[in-house]
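Rotation project, supervised by the postdoc (A.L.). Task for the rotation student: set up a whole-complex structure prediction and record inputs and outputs verbatim in this book. Inputs entered:
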Amino acid sequence: MSLLTVGSVAFDALETPFGKTDKIIGGAATYITLSASYFTKDNNLVAVVGDDFPQSMINDLNQHGINTEGLEIRQGEKTFFWSGKYHDDMNTRDTVEVQLNVMEHFDPIIPDAYQDCQYLMLGNTAPAIQQKVIERLTNRPKLIVLDTMNLWIDIANADLMNLLKLVDVLVVNDEEARQLTRQPSLVKAAAKIKEMGPQTVIIKKGEHGALLFQNDQVFFAPALPLAEVFDPTGAGDTFAGGFIGHLAKTDDISFDNMKRAIIYGSAMASFCVEKFGAERIMNLTDEEIKSRVDEFVKLSAFGL
Amino acid sequence: MSLLTVGSVAFDALETPFGKTDKIIGGAATYITLSASYFTKDNNLVAVVGDDFPQSMINDLNQHGINTEGLEIRQGEKTFFWSGKYHDDMNTRDTVEVQLNVMEHFDPIIPDAYQDCQYLMLGNTAPAIQQKVIERLTNRPKLIVLDTMNLWIDIANADLMNLLKLVDVLVVNDEEARQLTRQPSLVKAAAKIKEMGPQTVIIKKGEHGALLFQNDQVFFAPALPLAEVFDPTGAGDTFAGGFIGHLAKTDDISFDNMKRAIIYGSAMASFCVEKFGAERIMNLTDEEIKSRVDEFVKLSAFGL
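Outputs recorded:
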């Protein structure tokens, strides 16, 4: 089934203990659609960039089967830019510079051809913008998945609370879940989020895996234990892309299929951190993904 | 097969955000043998207490089928005492008071009846004492499992390095693994520990589960997501007790069976934190354990 991803397409400049990059392609929606492209071929993007965004990068997205009809190119403006530096432990990072540029007035335009999308992934951006997307779709998608971040929990809490009533799945990390609910226990945090709207809650714990909560059921997906993490940028978005990509491909939103989807998301995220930015997830084969997923099976399978 | 556990039997006084206790029974070997008692009935303890240690507590151990012939009662001396207070997040604690008492000169005596033990669990105590146990056994056990802690890595590093060459399995938490090897990556830490001696390495990550490394294989066991952790004291020892208890019961040290053993250990640890001290693991039924293990299956099972 068709997938619509809305979020940022950006330039990133990254520094990790292993090196640094000049401006490379980044942004939540970039990682999500690229990751999803290995699962679904009906893969539609809504985002905004400036006229400094190279056609070659758009070509890269198109070559992955991503429909960029909804990628608005704002003339005379510049693309969103983020620059960050990771600490030695790779678990924390400082934002060096943010230039909102075109994102400051992002007003998502949904092409007519996207109106029938069944799966909607709202990549991290202001909740008011995310809500506009839902309102601008004539038919409600079968599944709406929302990502957000600490910034919006802080400065746009009322907007976020309204939005949460409209979505099916919330994907957040453990700190965001705690911040949103003021519950240190993730089990209680997930229960409280379900009261806010989304009936399915995914809590990402980075190197400690991810938890899926739905009704009274809970599933835990491990993260692959890695000897080296080269660059964690985009790992969470890549996870979300694998998750919704698998759901859109199979058009099955049962709990059992969501478990599989989280394993695929985790496998995609484990590739993402192997190289700078989106480089690794731009260059994957189906065989590599299959083999990585098999590693997850080996990692967590036991018989009693 | 027969299991021998050596370590501390102690008094603890605990304070958590949920309440506080007077002196209750504690000590690594107490948690280990109690946990193992649900798996193996040939369960032998070597430890030392003072003459202040109540016979009723020894009776409690005996009622769980624990052989206390090797529990030395030192007349005119006092039992090891530890008092600790947990912070609100339950992940960190302060030691309020330590009275080594009889542990200061612990010289483990192995009763003749214990000499044929096939499974040896060295609970956390000074490496020199742990090594004495191995030397005092006429026949080397089939499997020697070692626990240690940050204190010994700091102040008895040479002793610990010698000891590591003699054991098969090291059980440590993530911080201890990093401290021992100076490797932030747990994958690299496990590889380095294997160079130090033990061919199997278990790294406990508390609420984030546990990793089992052997040769080039790795297995991850999740921790059960809990709404409340009442008191984490002894959870690591209870984990170790379930692990070695299952191995001793089945007499199978294959990687596949170690995976099962870690699931049993994790299930036992999830009970331990539900009440103060060893209270919960003193009062378990086989049915409760089976049902908890089934929760682990549900938590981590997925089909592709």
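Student's summary: The interface with chain A takes residues 88-89, 184-188, 205, 208-209, 211, 217-222, 225-228, 256, 259-260, 263, 293, 297-300, 302-304 of chain B (CB under 8 Å).
Supervisor addendum: The mean pLDDT of chain B is 96.
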